[in-house]
Structures are given as C-alpha cells and as structure tokens.
Amino acid sequence: MDMKGTTVSDDLNSDLNRVAGDMPSETTESKSFLTEAESRASYRRCTWRGGCYYCQGADGRWRLIHCVG
Questions:
Q1: What is each CA distance from 61 to 15, 38, 51, 69, in whole angstroms?
Q2: pLDDT tens digit string along 5-55?
Q3: Which of 44, 39, 36 lies closest to 60, judged by CA?
Q4: SS3 57
Q5: Can you tell me the distance from the alpha carbon of 34 to that of 32, in angstroms, rounded to the nearest whole number?
Q6: Model pTM score
Q7: Closest CA to 11 of 66, 51, 49
Q8: Within a 13 Å sphere around the CA of 29, how many CA atoms are in the beta-carbon half?
Q9: Cα(18)–Cα(62) distance, integer angstroms
Q10: Which long-range contacts link 15-21 to residues 24+ away (Cβ below 8 Å)?
Q11: In the chain, what's the furthest Cα-to-Cα distance?
C-alpha cells in the first residue's frame, strides 16, 4: 500500500513541527528528494524522521513523501 502524499496523524504532525523548529523552508537540499510534481507543490519545509521524509504543506499539515528501506 502506497502511503506517499498522505497527511500524517495529529501526534506526528506535532512531533514534526517540534523537530523542524525554525528550519528554513524549501531549501535546495529539501527539494532534492521531491518529484517534479511535488516540487511544484506548495511545501513550506521538509525533514527526515524515523527513516521517512516528510514535507509540510501551506496548510500547516505534514505529508509523507518517502521512506527508506
């Protein structure tokens, strides 16, 4: 089952907000893991957590982008 692009739970959303802190938005490094379509999306910032890569949308919600393994 492909969970890519799905919005995370409220608990994980809070955790990712805490982990990301004052991380700058949309850096070149953060976009390197995104597909062309995802790069066009309005993601504010991205971060790794627990082997997965997540990006925060303009709505403030985090979405799963990619998991390793």
A1: 11, 15, 19, 24
A2: 789 999 999 999 998 887 656 556 656 667 777 766 677 788 889 999 898
A3: 44
A4: strand
A5: 6
A6: 0.73
A7: 49
A8: 7
A9: 12
A10: 15/49, 16/47, 16/49, 16/54, 16/56, 16/62, 17/56, 17/62, 19/47, 19/49, 20/45, 20/47, 20/56
A11: 33
Report the distance separating Cα 10 and Cα 31, nearest Å: 24
Residue 43's identity, in one-letter code, is Y
| Tokens describing residue 31 | 């976009």
Instruction: For tokens 């062309």, name the residue.
Output: 36
